[in-house]
Amino acid sequence: MKKILAFAGSSSPTSINHQLILNVTNRISDHEIEVLDLHDVIFPMYSTVEEKEGFPKNVKLLYEKILDASALIISVNEYNANVSGFFKNILDWLSRLDRKFLQEKKILLMSTSPGKRGGASALEYCKNQFPRFGGQVVESFSLPLFYENFDSEKGIILNEVFDLGITEVITAFSQQIKE
């Protein structure tokens, strides 16, 4: 049994990416999972704060949780064809604390959005960036048209094709982290 850390890269209390995280983590029973909700965690904007005050407590806590996990499930939101400023800021802080903060972490990377592309640009950005920090994206999944394909009250994917797709991705991810 591996320890998995799961979170969405969103500061929204109604994050659709967090809803996707909950759907996926509820399907995994053969690993220990910790789900973080970052919407109420304060991360100051990266700047000269580091020089004056050092690393913020919340950055260190997230870093320790990442180090403690065997694998990660991350769902990134997209703003203007990129990751959100919130998530980019977290990446900036973590990479300053330890350039290889994702070292040897296998990652299931996901994204969803209300649009037809399902956050594809943010997903691609992270696929390119995570290896720079030592991470290995072993599986990925994008859910387009969130409000048409997901029932927020029940927490389920409505579209059978996407539901089957995420099931296959989760199965492959679970197998890959057992190795």
UniProtKB/TrEMBL annotation:
Species whose genome carries this gene: Salinimicrobium oceani
Pfam families, A to Z: FMN_red
Gene3D superfamilies, sorted: 3.40.50.360
Residue ranges occupied by any NADPH-dependent FMN reductase-like domain in the UniProt entry: 3-140
Descriptive protein name: NAD(P)H-dependent oxidoreductase
Lineage: Bacteria, Pseudomonadati, Bacteroidota, Flavobacteriia, Flavobacteriales
PANTHER family: CHROMATE REDUCTASE (PTHR30543), NAD(P)H-DEPENDENT FMN REDUCTASE LOT6 (PTHR30543:SF21)
